Structure prediction request, 206 residues.
Amino acid sequence: MRLFRPVGLHELRLIYEAEMRAFPPRLPEQPIFYPVLNEPYAIKIAREWNTKSNARVGFVTRFDVDDEYVRRFERKIVGSRDHEELWIPAEELATFNQHIRDAIQVTAAYFGDDYEGFVPAAFGLKGKTAREQFVALAKTLPYSSFDVVCELAANHVAVFLNYFFWENLDVTKDGMAAEERDRILERLKDMWAGSSRSAIPLGVVT
Prediction:
């Protein structure tokens, strides 16, 4: 069965750190894990709710779960008929994760106006917002691709999480054209593909 789940920045970071193979354990005040059964509903939550809370970002994840296993869980309608969810008890989530086929993918990302992104605490990108990180990498690439490769290795979590923002970044404020942004992103992708993180793709998967 194909399922979707809207997540915020912190949850996506934990998913990434699990190699895109598992959702993180629920908190004590979260007794239920709620994947949804259609992408438009997940998009609505990510765009209208997640962008207004905490880190001001909502990601839509897509994943497949073994049919026979997932049929044991009751479908719930929450609100309109399109708001269909599965309710997975928190204590069942570890087993649920074991039945996820292949990798969890990010299919869409939505950002609030004041999104700052994941801010790393070390190396060249230390203390920089998502926009500032892109500008720093863009300025470094022409004279030292080696430094950028090292930065991607040292701050791969920030690069993975913020790349979704960079894909839609208005770079005219930074004196760049969209075509230049796209060339930089392709170079970053090529560098990522040659790294130890290459099994996890950068950016939105269609």
Summary: The radius of gyration is 18 Å. The domain at 2-111 is CATH 3.20.170 (ADP-ribosylation fold). The helical segments are 9-17, 39-48, 67-70, 93-98, 130-140, 145-154, 156-166, 178-193.
